[in-house]
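Work Package 4 report. The design task specified in the project plan requires that, given a folded chain encoded as structure tokens, an amino acid be chosen for each position. We show below one input record used in the internal validation round.
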């Protein structure tokens, strides 16, 4: 019998509080570009890296963003992302 048991595998998904922050950031980002642009977050299956994309409502990608740029945009700091 193993001495320690694991309730979850921390490498399979981010903690709940991180997911909640990402959800809140997504909501803020949607308000920025209501009807104009949509911010999408993607997580790769290999390496679990996060990236973002700005898309028009029909789904075409306008610009690819790094995780930092996407989060800055989602947190309301559009000026720093658009100036780059």
């Amino acid at each position: 019998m193993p001495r320690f048991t694991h309730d979850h595998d921390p490498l399979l998904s981010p903690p709940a509080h991180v997911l909640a922050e990402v959800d809140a950031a997504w909501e803020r980002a949607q308000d920025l570009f209501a009807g104009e642009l949509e911010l999408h977050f993607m997580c790769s299956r290999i390496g679990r890296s996060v990236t973002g994309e700005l898309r028009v409502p029909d789904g075409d990608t306008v610009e690819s963003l790094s995780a930092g740029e996407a989060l800055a945009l989602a947190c309301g700091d559009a000026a720093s992302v658009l100036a780059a």
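Helices lie at 16-32, 67-74, 78-83. Validation will be extended to a larger panel in the next phase.
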